[in-house]
């Protein structure tokens, strides 16, 4: 049974929901957020369960290894300056 929602629902439309989470993670990447920051932001602002964000993040990581290697290298100096 599907409900009427403003946004995709994990239970009613899982593929659309996962795609939405992916786009939200990509937005976090634009803001140079770490994995932990992204998980926290999506949980707080979009009510996305951390396990969902982490699962989608890991799949993106598998599919885009080269991108994430460069991304993490670019984040390293920023993370060091924050500590």
Automatic annotation (TrEMBL):
Stored PANTHER family: OS02G0137100 PROTEIN, TRANSMEMBRANE PROTEIN
Keywords linked to the UniProt accession: Membrane, Transmembrane
Transmembrane is among the record's keywords: yes
Entry keyword annotation includes Transmembrane: yes
Pfam families named in the record: A_thal_3526
InterPro entries recorded: CHP01589_pln
Highest rank taxon of the organism: Eukaryota
Name used for this protein in its record: Transmembrane protein
